[in-house]
Amino acid sequence: MRYKLYKRDGNYELYDMLNDPYEKNNIIKQKPKIAAELKAELASFLESCQGSFEGDEYGQDSFNKLRQQWSDQFGKKNQAKQKGSE
Fold first, then answer.
1. What is the C-alpha to C-alpha distance for residues 29 and 14, in angstroms, rounded to an integer?
2. 70: closest CA among 84, 83, 52?
3. Beta pairing partners, 13
4. Among 63, 39, 33, 67, which Cα is nearest to 51's?
5. CA-to-CA distance for 17 and 27, rounded, in angstroms?
6. Does the pLDDT value for residue 13 go beyond 90?
7. The whole model's pTM is what?
8. What is the pLDDT of residues 34-82, one digit of tens each?
9. CA 1, CA 61: separation in Å to the nearest integer?
10. Domain range summary for the chain, segments of one domain joined by +
C-alpha cells in the first residue's frame, strides 16, 4: 500500500510510504481525495468490525457474556485499561 492514513488525537495524517517511509511529511492537505477514500475504507472496516463484535456473524452469546459495548473498545474506558497495563 502506497499511502498510510493515521489518526492521532482526533486529527488525520496521510503519508506516502514510497517517497516518505519515515513519515516525516504529512501530505493530507496535498492529497485530500486519497485521504477521503482511505477514511471511507477505514469507516467501512470499523463498521464491519463492530458488526462482528456485536454478534452479526456468530450470534450474540459471546457478546452477551462480555457485557461490553463497541464504544468501550476505542473510548476512555479502553484507554484507562491500556494505561493500567503499562
1. 9
2. 52
3. 6
4. 63
5. 11
6. yes
7. 0.64
8. 999 999 998 898 888 887 777 776 666 666 666 666 666 666 544 444 4
9. 37
10. 3-84
